[in-house]
Design goal:
Radius of gyration: 41 Å
Distance between the termini: 115 Å
Shape: elongated
Strand content: 5-15%
Structural class: alpha+beta
Number of helices: 46
């Protein structure tokens, strides 16, 4: 401390003049503090110090008493305050106004010790305040935390509330509800405006006139009630009713922890009297402090005038550095929070006589201490901080604030930097801090108690957050920009900056609240958007109104084309040119929004860059970036990781998380470009070793391969090969031994990576903060001291000094991925839903416009003659007019909603889904994908290291001038190079192996092992997939993805990862596997991404094919089968539709919305809304695999037939159960959905069977192509095909039940139709009997089909329409979906089977059926018993025996073991 005082005060080299001291006192305190007996020129400064210290409080009291009226607020009456009670007329209750917990109904949580914030946890919970009013004019304010249904107002003590009734639902209660835009007093009526989160709602009651009025953000909503019951016995309490999980802050003018009104109303008094005396006292003290700051600045300038010699310069720098380190040590010392500061003059008086010659600087600092200490007593009240200190801080930064003096230089700097859109603001603030503000903060940090100053700063930040959260009244966002500028200004001071990051920005107010950009009201958006626009759909083929079509068929009306008339009531679609001009104008207006918010986004970026400052660390103090990263980790744990584990909700708004991610990502990209880690051409990413070396803990989440301790033990040898035996990460998981030599079973370092024990304290802590109800304020304790009162229990701060740049970048990138996966993606999904709803409403409006035109045109055609109308025609005309009137009313409703939605979409396009955001997300996606591919594929990592390049955006080649061709590894069918080999697919672990995930190539084990991909955290994969979906599904086509030059190569790289890893055995987490297969299915729904899959290297393609055609037993096959069929969609028989033909005839065939298009694909719904995009390349890959792997091909086809048989059987069973229930209302919805789902699964499997028949028909006839299982497969295939035809087409075989189900038209069964059921069967038959196949193949298949017991020719004729029924199904009814060539081919098949069946019938003897029945198989009674078991000799038909041998090796009858089978002659049995 002596070094600090020596450097600050110095030693007076000569006696000061007496007049100089008087002038200084006069400038600071005025004439009232001048001493008349001060004659000693050596001690006059000391005497003035004592004089000021003794008389300053008295002078303040005198001035306040004589000028009390000058310090009174305009909106507050002048009262004599007493600490015990508030006796103002018309008011009853305690002086401190809080929520009265004893009056609450429902489940409520009072948030914070102040008891002025409440959160509802049940349906309509109600609570009131502790004070009431019965006369006069009073008001209170609330700030909303969320929008929604709430009722805010006043009630009497006699009101009784419940879970169904709240404020405004009783006779003596009145409320305003901005969620429903209504007022409530038993009855309800429209009133006010819709409120938004962050709005400040003022509630004013005038009990002299009996009126009540509400204000939104300072704007009156009009008088809500003009007949409020008042008089004797009626006193009104402030009260609120909340819906579930709606949170807001109840703000009245409360002292100690309460603040002034944000929007005071003249004439209305707050329920709690403001501390006017303390405000006046603080105002005078700040006036004195301003004078001292002026004198200190003048003294500093005078000291800089004389030139400095090198020696003096060195000594001066050393002396100035020493106090800085001393002050830093004191500020960051844990023992100094409550240690009183010794008085500077008492220290000086204890020194030598030379020290008694006080210098001017020492004199000014001593005066400053007296003023600041006196000021500290006033600043204990948050009201005084907000009312007096905060405006002066804003003035010192050049911002104007209610009559406070504005620093001229700071104002000029602010004007200049604002005109430059705040570019490089952080660098300017950190390089050249503003001296006046920093001097003021230095004085506060030196002379005030640290805990008190921490609370003062917290009150300032809370107030700025409240003002920032308000909805901007215009498009300039001045309030929000100035709020962030104030924070940046405060952070010029290093000590203040460190404190804010440590104890404020991650505590009561999180830093992300200042990174949000809130959408203004619709009225503000209309000032920018000249005319709303939305995408207007065009008419689609096959779209008709079912009722109009029916009337046209009956001849009731004439079918007319869409032709707008000159009538004003008829809706007209805009011409293409006009619509294009309107769209261009709309896009220009969206660009204006982008320009309006650019300054706010830039200053938010500068704010983040100040938080990431790494140059202010010393050997005693950590840098700001180091502190921020430690706190940011806790922030991610609480808001993202913990929510994923426990609550599956985010306590932060998704919109705030989206903006926070956007600003942090921009800052990280800027910092990465300045100091890249590794190759500067690559985007921010994590090296592969980061997942295994323990440098990052990844928030202790699960890894792809399971929990971390298990992976370390299982893959220890691979870790040792890469990291070395002595790596600390590996050693931390070694068991610790106790003194007895046994393994310690307690919690050891091994649990550091476990998501169970290691995170248990963190989970409990976060749950407690989330769920625990705060305790009421303690007596004799200064409420609101939340910053440092629990400092000893805070987590340990990071060590001193700057953080390593590489480590900081890796932590930030990892945190950004967790933030996006945990919270930000929810906002993207919400915006996509908004866009999809807009498209749906545009479709509905288009339909209404068409109906209006059709009805009006028909009316003009039929009734347009000048002849007199008959009575029937008059009634018809009236009916038409009513129809048009109702349609016009519906049109007006849709247009209103579309206009409101177009304003919101304009904000989305201009402020959220911008081109800059798209480009930054693409880089983020590229980096995440690069990290995953490095860790999953050794070849990818090796090529990257050799070429120093990557298959990433902008990279045209990695080897020999090609991009992907260099990785086209040759695929072979040999056993040692199969896809199960370590190069392409990790094998099943062998007994005794060190790795359960396969053994990588020894040449690469020293750098990285492929099995270590299991250490990747789950959220890295999920975040990468979500970033991909955001770019290509959510933002596109609103922001076209084609404008990214590197997108094509990037999506190919993503497709390669999906193909290789969607069923990787190293991934054991079911959620991650499901996300991968869903994204792959989404890739298969669009032509662009399908082409990307075709460009994937051969290795990854064959890996995908191998997984898709793997047997369906013991795995989730529905989604993979969906993907398999997507490659066939467009090539099958009648399989080129987007919407089912029978549904398109009724509802039209429109493009699916984006939400249906990809991110979450329901594998059971087969392609009913996705357009065809077949891939011949992938089909060829499947053909090659099936032909080169006969055993796997046979196993796959056999499992496919089994699942197809199961799905058909389940569907038939459910159909029969539903057929027995005659009343549709008696059917359970679950039963109907199960029936429809089984039918969808059947169709998908049937299409997969059609794919197999087209690609590998030899499986049914050639033993070498199916591992000698061809006869079994042929028999089962024919059996399934004939079973479908019999159950669907033949009345006696179950077709009647199917017909009744189709005719009933039950909900969710619209896809159950003949077309859907029969087209894949027809495709199978056409390919199985293709004339291009060898004759022996055709003979075998034909024989198997016609000898199948379920074979029915009439079923085949049913499909082509050759039956006696007049109203029947026929493929000929769908000429737009089934080509003539396909129908000819199918007729050829039917003719061939009919001829073969006739030949079989003729070959049989008419009277031999009874004699030959003894020779039939006793299992199926359909075929001759021509095969016998060896050695037992029992016989049956070959089909039954071969199917039995798939599951058992014992005889049907005697259970003897079977060695082989042999063919026998039926006549010799």
């Amino acid at each position: 401390m002596m070094n600090v005082l020596r450097s600050m005060f110095g030693v007076c080299s000569s006696s000061a003049e007496k007049g100089e001291v008087h002038d200084t006192i006069r400038k600071v305190f005025g004439n009232d503090m001048i001493m008349k007996d001060n004659t000693d020129k050596y001690t006059q400064r000391n005497k003035y110090i004592s004089h000021v210290r003794d008389n300053l409080p008295k002078m303040l009291d005198t001035k306040i008493a004589s000028h009390k009226s000058k310090s009174a607020k305009k909106h507050a009456p002048i009262v004599t305050e007493t600490p015990e009670s508030d006796d103002r007329p018309g008011r009853v209750g305690p002086r401190i106004v809080v929520f009265d917990a004893s009056t609450g109904t429902g489940r409520l949580v009072l948030v914070g010790d102040e008891r002025v914030s409440v959160q509802g946890l049940s349906s309509f919970a109600t609570i009131r305040a502790t004070a009431c009013v019965f006369a006069g004019k009073w008001m209170y304010e609330v700030q909303l935390g969320t929008k929604g249904i709430m009722q805010i107002g006043w009630c009497t003590a006699s009101c009784v509330f419940s879970m169904d009734t709240g404020v405004g639902d009783t006779a003596h209660s009145y409320a305003y509800d901005g969620g429903r835009i209504r007022r409530w007093n038993v009855a309800t009526s429209p009133y006010g405006q819709a409120w938004l989160p962050g709005d400040v709602i003022g509630s004013c009651i005038d009990l002299d006139k009996g009126t009540m009025e509400f204000y939104r953000n300072g704007i009156s909503l009009g008088v809500a009630f003009d007949k409020v019951t008042h008089g004797a016995g009626l006193a009104y309490f402030p009260s609120v009713s909340l819906n579930t999980y709606l949170f807001f802050i109840f703000r009245v003018c409360l002292s100690m922890i309460h603040v002034p009104f944000v929007f005071p109303v003249d004439g209305y008094a707050p329920l709690q009297a403001p501390p006017n005396r303390e405000c006046s006292r603080a105002s005078l003290l700040f006036k004195y402090l301003d004078g001292l700051l002026d004198e200190l600045n003048l003294n500093r300038l005078s000291e800089l005038k004389p030139p400095l010699t090198p020696k003096s310069s060195k000594s001066k720098s050393e002396s100035s550095r020493a106090p800085e380190e001393e002050v830093a040590l004191r500020i960051h010392s844990s023992e100094s929070a409550y240690t009183p500061r010794p008085s500077p003059h008492t220290i000086i008086n204890a020194q030598s006589a030379e020290m008694k010659k006080m210098s001017k600087k020492a004199f000014l600092m001593s005066l400053a201490r007296i003023v600041v200490v006196e000021l500290g007593g006033c600043l204990r009240l948050s009201y005084v901080v907000v009312n007096e200190l905060l405006p002066r801080l804003r003035g010192a930064l050049g911002l104007r604030s209610r009559g406070i003096h504005v620093d001229q230089h700071a104002s000029e700097f602010y004007t200049k930097i604002r005109d430059e859109n705040f570019k490089n603001l952080s660098a300017l603030f950190l390089a050249q801090p503003q001296p006046r503000l920093c001097t003021l903060l230095d004085l506060l940090w030196i002379f005030l108690d640290e805990a008190a100053l921490c609370d003062i700063l917290e009150h300032c930040v809370v107030r700025e957050c409240l003002l920032f959260d308000l909805v901007s009244p215009d498009m300039f966002f001045m309030q929000q920009t100035e709020g962030v500028y104030v924070l940046c200004g405060l952070m010029q001071h290093r000590g203040t900056r460190h404190h804010l990051v440590k104890y404020v920005f991650f505590n009561k107010i999180t830093f992300d609240n200042f990174l949000n950009v809130k959408c203004p009201d619709d009225a503000v958006l209309r000032t920018v958007i000249r005319k709303p626009w939305w995408q207007r759909p065009t008419s689609v083929q096959g779209e008709t109104d079912p009722r109009i079509a029916e009337m046209a068929e009956k001849g009731t009306i004439k079918r007319s084309s869409f032709a707008p008339t000159g009538t004003d009531k008829i809706s007209k679609l805009l011409p293409a040119q006009s619509n294009s001009d309107l769209e261009n104008q709309y896009r220009e207006d969206c660009d204006k929004i982008t320009k309006f918010i650019a300054p706010l986004e830039q200053i938010q970026l500068e704010f983040v860059l100040m938080l990431l400052n790494n140059s202010d660390g010393t050997n005693m103090v950590p840098s700001t970036r180091k502190i921020f990263l430690e706190k940011f980790r806790r922030y991610i744990m609480d808001n993202c990781i913990l929510d994923m584990r426990l609550f599956n909700i985010s306590r932060n708004s998704p919109a705030i998380s989206w903006c926070c991610h956007a600003r942090l990502l921009t800052a990280v990209l800027k910092l990465w470009s300045e100091n890249p880690v590794g190759n500067p051409n690559l985007p921010p990413h994590l090296p592969a070793k980061t997942f295994i070396d323990g440098e990052l803990d990844f928030y202790n989440v699960d890894r792809l391969g399971g929990v971390l301790p298990f992976l370390v033990r299982t893959l220890r040898q691979d870790l040792v090969n890469v990291l070395g035996e002595d790596n600390p990460f590996i050693q931390s998981f070694e068991p610790s031994y106790n003194r007895a030599g046994g393994i310690d079973t307690g919690v050891s370092d091994m649990t550091a990576g476990s998501p169970g024990l290691a995170t248990l304290p963190q989970v409990i802590s976060s749950m407690a903060r989330f769920m625990h109800q705060p305790m009421p304020p303690m007596t004799n304790r200064t409420t609101g001291e939340t910053s440092l009162t629990l400092k000893g229990t805070r987590s340990m701060m990071p060590g001193a000094g700057a953080i390593d740049v590489r480590s900081a970048h890796l932590r930030l990138v990892d945190g950004l991925l967790a933030l996006y996966h945990g919270a930000a993606i929810k906002h993207a999904e919400k915006l996509c839903e908004l866009r999809d709803n807009q498209l749906d409403m545009a479709d509905c409006l288009h339909d209404i416009e068409q109906r209006i035109c059709n009805v009006t045109t028909d009316a003009q055609v039929d009734l347009g003659s000048n002849e007199e109308l008959t009575e029937q025609e008059k009634l018809r005309k009236q009916l038409m007019e009513k129809i048009v009137k109702e349609l016009e009313r519906s049109k007006a409703v849709y247009e209103e909603k579309l206009e409101a939605g177009s304003l919101q979409m304009a904000w989305v396009i201009g402020a959220i889904w911008t081109k800059q955001r798209q480009a930054e997300l693409a880089k983020h996606f590229s980096g995440a994908l690069h990290s995953l591919r490095l860790s999953s594929d050794i070849n990818y990592a090796a090529h990257t290291q050799v070429a120093s390049k990557e298959i990433l955006p902008g990279k045209s080649s990695i080897l020999d001038g090609t991009s992907y061709a260099s990785l086209q590894l040759e695929y072979t069918s040999s056993s040692d190079q199969s896809p199960q080999s370590p190069i392409s697919r990790v094998t099943t672990p062998r007994a005794g192996s060190n790795s359960q995930f396969g053994t990588p190539d020894p040449a690469c084990t020293q750098d990285y092992a492929e099995s270590l991909f299991a250490f990747v955290p789950e959220y890295h994969v999920d975040a990468m997939l979500e970033l991909c979906n955001t770019l290509r599904l959510y933002m596109h086509p609103t922001v076209p993805i084609q404008q990214l030059p590197e997108w094509e190569e990037l999506v190919v790289s993503c497709a390669a990862f999906l193909c290789a890893e969607f069923a990787d055995q190293r991934i054991v987490l079911a959620s991650t596997r499901e996300s991968l297969v869903q994204t792959l299915a989404s890739f298969a729904t669009q032509p662009t991404t399908m082409r990307a899959i075709e460009r994937v290297p051969l290795k990854q393609q064959m890996s995908m094919v191998e997984e898709l055609v793997r047997p369906y037993q013991n795995r989730a096959w529905a989604q993979s089968n969906w993907v398999l069929v997507r490659f066939w969609h467009g090539s099958g028989f009648g399989f080129r539709h987007r919407q089912w033909p029978h549904l398109a005839a009724r509802y039209g065939d429109r493009e699916p919305t984006v939400n249906n298009l990809g991110a979450k694909v329901d594998a059971g719904l087969m392609s009913q809304c996705f357009g065809p995009c077949p891939s011949e390349i992938i089909q060829n890959r499947i053909r090659d695999y099936l032909s080169s792997h006969p055993k796997d091909a046979a196993a796959f086809l056999n499992s496919l037939l089994s699942q197809l048989n199961w799905a058909l059987s389940e569907f038939i069973t459910m159909m029969q159960e539903m057929d027995r229930v005659y009343v549709d209302a008696h059917l359970e919805s679950r039963q109907i959905k199960l029936c429809a789902t089984c039918f969808d699964l059947y169709h998908g499997l049937a299409r997969a069977l059609e794919l197999c028949m087209y690609l590998a028909p030899d499986l049914l006839t050639k033993p070498e192509a199916s591992d000698n299982q061809n006869e079994l497969l042929l028999g089962r295939t024919c059996q399934i095909i004939m079973a479908v035809i019999s159950r669907v087409c033949v009345r006696g075989g179950g077709g009647a039940g199917f017909a009744r189900l189709v005719a009933r038209g039950l909900p969710d069964t619209d896809r159950v139709h003949y077309y859907v059921a029969l087209t894949p069967i027809a495709g199978c038959l056409i390919r199985m009997l293709d004339p291009k196949l060898p004759p022996d193949h055709l003979d075998k298949v034909t024989k198997a089909l016609v000898t199948e017991p379920l074979f029915r020719v009439d079923g085949l004729e049913f499909m082509i329409g050759k039956t006696k029924d007049k109203e029947h199904f026929s493929f000929y009814n769908y000429p737009d979906d089934i080509t003539i060539e396909e129908m000819k081919a199918f007729e050829v098949v039917v003719d061939r089977l009919r001829v073969a069946r006739d030949a079989v019938v003729k070959a049989r003897s008419p009277g031999s059926s009874g004699a030959q029945s003894e020779l039939l198989c006793t299992i199926c009674y359909a075929r001759p018993a021509d095969t016998a078991f060896v050695p037992c000799g029992h016989h049956s038909c070959r089909a039954c025996i071969m199917q039995h041998l798939l599951n058992s090796k014992q005889c049907f009858f005697c259970k003897a073991d079977i060695d082989s089978v042999k063919e026998i002659e039926p006549a010799n049995n």
